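A.,

Following up on our hallway conversation. Structure tokens first:
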């Protein structure tokens, strides 16, 4: 019986090292996956912007001559901007002061 326990202890110790605990796993991601938190973040972003999607669509159409296919509001660091996709361009427009951050051909 002693040999049986001594034989299995290394397997138990080494098997537990390869897995993360739930606390370690959560510390790697650093974000909350709850849908309600995501919705609240999106609502807060929409409260902060100075121009809505319709104004951005008109501005992009004046700028490129094309209608936007997809418009999404996002943030990176301290920037709040719209990512816009048209037939020929990818654009990023600042949602606070209406400046073009990036304009690339597709």
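Then the amino acids I'd put at each of the 106 positions:
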């Amino acid at each position: 019986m002693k040999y049986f326990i001594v034989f299995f202890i290394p397997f138990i110790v080494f098997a537990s090292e390869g897995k993360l605990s739930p606390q370690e796993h959560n510390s790697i991601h650093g974000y909350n996956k709850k849908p309600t938190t995501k919705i609240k973040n999106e609502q807060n972003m929409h409260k902060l912007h100075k121009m809505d999607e319709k104004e951005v669509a008109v501005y992009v159409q004046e700028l490129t001559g094309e209608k936007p296919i997809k418009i999404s509001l996002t943030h990176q660091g301290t920037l709040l901007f719209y990512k816009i996709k048209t037939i020929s361009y990818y654009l990023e427009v600042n949602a606070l002061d209406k400046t073009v951050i990036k304009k690339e051909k597709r």
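Helices lie at 2-17, 22-29, 35-48, 53-64. Curious whether your intuition agrees with the design.

B.
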